[in-house]
Design a protein that fits this description.
The complex is a heterodimer of chains A (about 575) and B (about 160). Chain A has about 575 residues and is of the alpha/beta class. Chain A has 3 domains: about 170 residues, Rossmann fold, CATH 3.40.50.970; about 160 residues, TPP-binding domain (Rossmann fold, 3-Layer(aba) Sandwich), CATH 3.40.50.1220; about 170 residues, 3-Layer(aba) Sandwich (Rossmann fold), CATH 3.40.50.970. Chain A has 22 helices and 20 strands. In chain A, the strands form 4 sheets. Chain A has a 6-stranded parallel beta sheet with strand order 3-2-4-5-7-6, sandwiched between helices. Chain A has a 6-stranded parallel beta sheet with strand order 11-10-9-12-13-14, sandwiched between helices. In chain A, helix 16 links the parallel strand 15 and strand 16. In chain A, helix 1 packs across helix 2. The longest helix of chain A has 15 residues. By secondary structure, chain B is an alpha+beta fold. Chain B has 2 domains: about 80 residues, Alpha-Beta Plaits; about 80 residues, 2-Layer Sandwich (Alpha-Beta Plaits). Helices cover about 30% and strands about 40% of the residues of chain B. In chain B, strands 5, 6, 7, 8 and 9 form a 5-stranded antiparallel beta sheet that branches. Chain B has a 4-stranded antiparallel beta sheet with strand order 2-3-1-4, covered by helices on one side. The longest helix of chain B has 13 residues. Chain B is elongated, with a radius of gyration of 19 Å. Classes of the chains: A alpha/beta (about 575), B alpha+beta (about 160).
Chain lengths: ~575, ~160
């Protein structure tokens, strides 16, 4: 008896189900009509966004907050190209995502057909891998491979381009149980000899600092990191993408390093004799001028991606492997032979933390943006999910939120994508239905995907958008103030902003506003209690800057405002 | 330093584009590139000649491995190997220079594959340095056109 053949679009949906997909973010169009016809009859929940970029960011937020592969879907041509920023964002931050795009029929490819774009060519540099499916018989295996590549090794986005005829043609559906890719076999287990050497170096070090990056979050190694710190009693600093891997306000926490990191983290790194970097890639926002970075430190570099080792910083001891597995093995050795705390170093750190705390000027007349974040901490106890857009508000959120839990701080680090936070928050909320999800936004960024108010309104996705509105493109303004003699080119938005409350109301979303410090707590409480999406317009001090700041290309111990001087 | 990288990749459409895209976006320079089939139909071999410090070559190797379709990268510079490149060159000649030109071609064991009244075309195979030497001797006759395949290379056989 020959097995019954199934239409490509149906094979796609069945394959997604086999991968455990329950939610998709997307936007229909001519070349994905067959797919949408099957979505109509499927129990996979589809969320209609209002711009494809938002679909990619929502899938990204979904993935970051859960560790599951996020899925977005767009039609050919402009639909596909609109995904590109979202795919690039996920790629820079190693987020597992599968992007599905419609394509003109295989016969029309290359003829400049209507709504044709070479999305495989376009996204080659911004995906972990991508596929063009040319035959429906290859479809199921391609989906299997796409998910496998997206979630294993160093995670990343994978795009699958689906010509319309592939979705129409039929094949026998047989979802493969496993994939065999001779050329793709990521290493997850760290070398035992290297691990033992690392432990020896840690024991011998006098001034070690641990740097925890997005890889700790990505491999769900937060518990192992916490145990590692408890066993070694070393200070630990988390990069922007690593925030939440270790409790932010703990005794051993150095909070965030780098350009807008804490002064004590930067000073500690510069004084360190050993750096233990776990799942982080020495981005220039962390290191400043490379040859001045951590001048006295040997480096143990733990990363799943061999290409990160030695890319920016020469490491004395590389360990290629999954952060969780490597930390587990290190912890096992440390438990057998416990380690003494390095008291003099911890005393030095204590003093640095006392001498250089994060600081801002409190004002009774004007709302300080940092104050808003402190109120959010008070109201949410650091247990909500927080997304951000990109700019000054993002850096304040990184500095001032009480990051307690992994996967709860969702921010575009590598690409620095304005417009990310709101759609990402939708994805986070869809993946975590009962949770409180707060998007810390700036007035500039929020307008980059403001159309998604329609989406959250329609599906009642109760995301709380909190706009720290200074009516500037604040981060650029800060650079113009400090480095361009206050020539505020194209950054002053005073009098040019829409009324965000009215905009929200136009979408049938609750809009609230606070203009005085004493209103902040009430307004935020109302927003958090409201059973639905909210936009809160908070008028903050217009010319507040983010400090400390390492000027671009400088050494990280040469900061402006290291004591928070404004 | 000049390195010859032998890269075995899955024989699939778009693989060459991935490699070219990788080199351009990471700012690595390619001196030459040659692609062809291997003894296994599922793989192709790309021979890359690149120049750079050891650290750069190490990065190139790792970035190549990071491509999903890359199966194996070998730096042949580190081992005993043989390199070959084929060169076609069209050179000007006249009755006075013809015999000297032919003599040079013979010394280099080249083959004259086409002759016209005022020029001739020579085929020559050798490693990069030999071919460069040959070209430098032909210069004085006037070189009209050069076509090169790019270097291919293979590791020398070992033991039995």
């Amino acid at each position: 008896m020959s097995a019954e053949k199934m239409k490509g679009s149906k094979i796609l949906l069945e394959s997604l189900k086999k991968e455990g997909v329950t939610d998709i973010f997307g936007y229909p169009g001519g070349k994905v009509l067959h797919i949408y016809d099957d979505i109509y009859q499927s129990d996979i929940k589809h969320y209609l966004v209002r711009h494809e970029q938002a679909a990619a960011h929502a899938a990204d937020g979904y993935a970051r907050s859960t560790g599951r592969v996020g899925v977005c879907l767009a039609t050919s041509g402009p639909g596909a190209t609109n995904l590109v920023t979202g795919i690039a964002t996920a790629n820079m931050d190693s987020i597992p995502m599968v992007a599905l795009t419609g394509q003109v029929s295989t016969a029309d490819i290359g003829t400049d057909s209507f709504q044709e774009a070479d999305i495989v060519g376009i996204t080659m540099p911004v995906t972990k891998h991508n596929f063009l499916v040319k035959d429906v018989k290859d479809l199921a295996m391609t989906i299997k491979k796409a998910f496998h590549i997206a979630r294993t090794g160093r995670p990343g986005p994978v795009l699958v381009d689906l010509p319309v005829d592939v979705t129409v043609n039929k094949a026998v559906f047989n979802y493969p149980d496993s994939v065999d890719m001779p050329s793709y076999k990521p290493t997850t287990k760290g070398s035992d000899r290297q691990i033992q050497n690392a432990i020896k170096m840690i024991r011998e070090a006098k001034k070690p600092v641990v740097l925890a990056g997005g890889g700790v979050i990505g491999s769900n190694a937060s518990d192992e990191l916490r145990e590692f710190i408890a066993l070694t009693k070393m200070p630990v600093s988390s990069t922007l993408l690593g925030l939440g891997a270790y409790p932010y306000n703990d005794y051993f926490s150095l909070q965030m390093p780098g350009m807008h990191g804490t002064a004590f983290a930067n000073y500690a790194i510069q004084e360190a004799d050993l750096l233990i970097s776990i799942g982080m890639r020495f981005d220039d926002r962390i290191t400043g001028k490379l040859d001045t970075f951590a001048p006295n430190a040997k480096v143990i570099h733990i990363d799943i991606d061999p290409a990160e080792i030695g890319k920016c910083i020469a490491s004395i001891l590389p360990i290629v492997g999954d952060a969780k597995e490597v930390l587990k093995e290190m912890n096992a050795y440390l438990k057998k032979e416990p380690m003494e705390a390095k008291e003099p170093w911890l005393k030095t750190i204590e003093k640095l933390k006392l001498d250089y705390p994060l600081f801002y000027k409190k004002d009774t007349n004007v709302i300080s943006p940092q104050y808003v974040l402190e109120v959010i901490n008070e109201l949410t106890k650091g247990e909500a999910f927080y997304t951000t857009e990109v700019g000054t508000h993002q850096m304040w959120a990184a500095q001032y939120l009480d990051h307690k839990l992994p996967r709860h701080f969702v921010s575009s680090g590598g690409l620095g994508t304005m417009g990310f936070g709101f759609p990402a928050a939708m994805g986070v909320q869809v993946a975590n239905p009962g949770a409180t999800v707060i998007n810390i936004a700036g007035d500039g960024s929020f307008q980059m995907n403001i159309q998604e108010l329609s989406t959250v309104s329609y599906y009642n996705i109760p995301v709380k958008n909190i706009i720290l509105n200074n009516q500037w493109l604040g981060m650029v303004r800060q650079w113009q103030e400090l480095f361009f003699q206050e020539r505020y080119s194209a950054t002053d938005l005073e009098g040019m902003q829409p009324d965000f409350v009215k905009v929200a109301e136009a979408y049938d979303v609750l809009g609230l506003r606070a203009t005085k410090p004493e209103e902040v707590k009430d307004v935020l409480s109302r927003a958090l209690k409201h059973n639905g999406p909210v936009v809160v317009d908070i008028r903050v001090a217009r010319e507040e800057n983010v400090f400390p700041m390492v000027p671009a290309g400088g050494a990280i111990d040469k900061m402006i405002g290291e004591r928070g001087i404004n | 330093m000049r390195h010859v990288l032998s890269v075995v990749v899955e024989n699939k459409p778009g693989v060459l584009a991935r490699i070219a895209s990788l080199f351009s976006r990471r700012g690595f320079n390619i001196d030459s590139l040659a692609v062809g089939a291997t003894e296994k139909p599922e793989f192709s071999r790309i021979t890359l000649v690149v120049t750079g410090e050891d650290l750069v070559i190490e990065q190139i190797t790792k970035q190549l491995y990071k491509l999903i379709d890359t199966y194996k990268v070998t730096d042949l510079t580190a081992v005993k190997h043989i390199e070959r490149e084929m060169l076609l060159v069209k050179v000007s000649i006249n009755p006075n220079t013809r015999s000297e030109a032919i003599e040079i071609v013979d010394i280099f064991r080249g083959k004259i594959i086409d002759v016209a009244e005022k020029n001739m075309t020579v085929e020559i195979t050798g490693d990069y340095d030999k071919n460069e030497g040959f070209l430098s001797l032909l210069k004085k006759f006037g070189i009209i056109e050069i076509v090169r395949t790019g270097t291919v290379a293979i590791q020398r056989g070992t033991g039995n």
